[in-house]
Amino acid sequence: MQQTLLAVLAIVVVGLFALGQQQDVARSERAVYDREMQERAAEKVRELLYEIQALPFDEVDIGSPSIRTNTSGLTTNLGPGSDEPNRSYYDDVDDFNGYVTVATVNHDTAEGGDYAHQVYLRVAVRYVRPETPDQAATGASLAKEIIVEGFYGGTAPAPGEEPDVRLSQVVTPTWHQIHG
After folding, report:
1. Which of 38, 43, 113, 127 has the fewest CB atoms within 10 Å, counting from its CB?
2. How many CB atoms lie within 10 A of CB 54?
């Protein structure tokens, strides 16, 4: 009888040890998955940021052969104009202010499966002080900060929720001359 109890106890101990090992493996796999999803979300954030920063600095500068040197005539209401109903009409940096979209990213599994996940992307554009670009300007200035945030849950974030990925870039009227 005592040997049977010892055998059952040994089986329970080995089972608990195996369960603990399995939980550790699952935690490790989840951490790797989370890092992969954050990297894929970052790719989508970078793609959108590159697309936005490639646009002209301001609506009034489109087609102008000269580089703007003052704030005269700059857009004061950041965001799309009434004649820009969707992204395909956006033609300057600040049109993306307030833009949100959901992008699809794929996750390849070791077993060869492919799962699609959603990344919620949110954009803000603001005027910043050229001499201190980490500070918002009180009006139009010769510097705009583009902020793109990604949330890899695919749904609108809760108020105050920190993004999984956040990238920003300050652009000026000379941005294209310097960076192509």
Report:
1. 113
2. 13
Q: What is the DSSP string of 47-63?
A: HHHHHHHTS-SSGGGTT
Half-sphere exposure of 2 (CA within 13 A, CB side): 0
Output the pLDDT for position 176.
Answer: 66
Using 50, 70 and 90 to split pLDDT, how confident is the model at 3? Answer: confident
**Per-residue DSSP letters for 16-79?**
HHHHHHHHHHHHHHHHHHHHHHHHHHHHHHHHHHHHHHTS-SSGGGTT-SSPP-S-TT--SS-S
The CA-atom distances, in angstroms, between 88 and each of 47, 80, 151 are: 16, 11, 23
State pLDDT tens for residues 30-69. 777 777 777 888 999 999 999 999 999 999 888 888 888 8
Q: For the CA atoms of the chain, what is the radius of gyration?
A: 25
